[in-house]
Amino acid sequence: MSFRFVMTINVESEDEIPDQYSGRVRKFDNGALEFVAWLNRGELEDPGSGIPAYSRYRPSGAVKQIRHYRLGRLHDPSRGVPAVQGFFANGTRRYEEHFRYGRRHDYEGKAAITKWHRVGTLRAELHYYEGLRIEVIVPAVAV
Question: What burial class does residue 29 get, using C-beta atoms within 10 Å of its C-beta: 0-12 exposed, 13-18 middle, 19+ buried?
Fold first, then answer.
């Protein structure tokens, strides 16, 4: 069995976070958890496999958004897993965004940004290459 010591501070404002702080930061609003952030020397950083560096919550406690960071920059945590995910109040996905070292970037042909309607149908797909918005041209099918 192993134990890990984690320094945690609770803040009322993000301005209260010390420069170069390493550890977990929690912010509450009227008693409800607003966000949890993991910092390494003042930069957002995923603390472990599958654990996002930043999680924002709704007053009900439901997850509103999660973001994964590597070396202080948004970055997909593993193959096919988006760096940013947003959720509707009922928990269904609202949007996903793929990043590579801080820049939006399509993942294996999948749009860097995908958005859904509340009922789960696709709303929009936006393609990016190294942070630049691109248009994907679909070849015409011969009849």
Answer: exposed
In degrees, to the nearest 5, what angle opens at C-alpha 44 toward C-alphas 98 and 21? 180
Cα-Cα-Cα-Cα dihedral sign, residues 107, 109, 110, 112: positive
Record the pTM: 0.90
Taking only the tens place, the pLDDT of each residue in 89-124 is 999 999 999 999 999 999 998 999 999 999 999 999
Amino acid residing at 15: D
